[in-house]
Amino acid sequence: MKKAFIKLHISIVLAGFTGLFGKLITLNGGLLAWYRILLAGILMLGILSITRRLTSVSLKDFLRISVPGFLISLHWLFFYGSIKYANISVGVVCFSLTSFFTALFSPILNKHRIVIAELLLSMLTLAGIALIFSFDSQYRIGIGLGVISSIVGSLYTIANERLAKLYPSEVIITYSMLGGALGLSVFMPLYLYFFPVGSIIPSWADFGYLLVLSLFCTVLLYLLQTQALRKISAFTINLSLNLEPVYTIILAIIIYQENKELTPVF
Questions:
Q1: Of 161, 177, 193, nearest to 33 (Cα)?
Q2: Which DSSP state fits 258?
Q3: Is the pLDDT of residue 4 over 90?
C-alpha cells in the first residue's frame, strides 16, 4: 500500500502541470486533447516496441480497453475547454468534483452500497464549487465545462479500475490511448465544424510542449495511477487527486500571476 500511495502522489504532482500546459499551448481544447492522446499512444507503442514488451490483444480486448481511453479523451476535451473559457485555477478546481461523482457512480456501476463517508467527504468540494459558481459569474461557462469534465473523469477511473485487475498497466495505457485517439478522431470533424481553426497543425513550440505533456504528464502519470489502482480504490484515487488543484494553483500564481484574476471568495 505504501508503494502504491507513493506512485499515486508522484502522478498527482505530474498532474499538477497539465493545467499549465493547457494555458501554454495555443491549440483549442479539442485539438489539444486529440494531439495529447494520439502522441501518448504513439510514444507508448514505440517504447514497448523498442523494449520488446509489446503485447498483442484480440479485437474484443482492444475494444474493451478503448472505452476508458475514449472517456479520458473526452475528459481532457472538456477540461481544456474549461481552462480556455475561464482560467487554470477554475479548470482544476472543477476537476475536484471527480471524487463526488465517483462516490455516486461507483456504487451504481459496481453494484454495491453507497458509502456515506465517501459521499460526505466528496461533498466538501461540491460546496466549494457552488460557492465559486454563485459569486464568480464571469466563469460560469468554464465551470460548466469543468463539471462535465469531472463527470467523464470519474467514469474513466471506475472503468480503468476494472481493467487494472485484468491486464498489465502498460497494455492498458497503450491500447486505451490508441483506442481513445481513434474514437476522438471520429468526432473531430464535427468539433472543428462548430469550433473552426485557421490550422490544425501545431507550431514547433506547441509540438514540443505536447511531447513533454504526452510523455511525462500522460504516459508516466497514467502508468503510475493504473499501477496504484491494483491496491487503491477508484474513490481514493479521485479523492487524493483533489491535491492536484492545490499544486496547479500555486504554480499558476507563480508563473501566470493568476491571483490577480481570483476573488477572495475563490
A1: 177
A2: G
A3: yes
